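User: Hi! I'm working on a homework problem where we have to compare a predicted structure to a textbook description. Could you give me the structure for the chain below?
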Amino acid sequence: MQWAFGAQFALGTALAAATGEWTLVLLWVTSYTPFLVGCALTHIVYRVTVDWWSLRRRGIAVLAVYQDSDRVGEVLVKRYSFTDVAGEERTLSGSGRRVATDPERTEVTYDPCAPKRMTTRDGPVVRTLSVLAYVLLGLPVTAATAAYPPVSLIILLSAL
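Assistant: Happy to help. Predicted structure tokens:
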């Protein structure tokens, strides 16, 4: 995939240089870095969407029991364990909304086709903030990133 980004950068630079307008070359070179950042954010949005969709369609919800905690720097990371449908013991590191105490338990949703894909159920405030971030940040960045190659190519070709 990196070769495609490199080829696009080289093609855009060559087309901009062919116009003889060095401001166009400078514009292309400086706008390409935000495009790459947008690609990285788009990949994150894609992975989150695939995880959400897969867990929504075929996920199984179970109760996971608190095992222990580790301190990573300033952050306390809790570990929960549960048994999947195949009878294997699975461990999840993280936190979610507690559904019971004594022992502490949280609800975990996992994909039986890909058991390493799992998440805890968050409370309504966290879910609302996640949806807002997805709609207000993730989707516009994805749309801008998708529009960048054709729009920039049209601008470069119209300058020729």
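For your comparison, note the following. The helical segments are 2-19, 22-58, 124-159. The mean pLDDT is 83. Good luck with the assignment!
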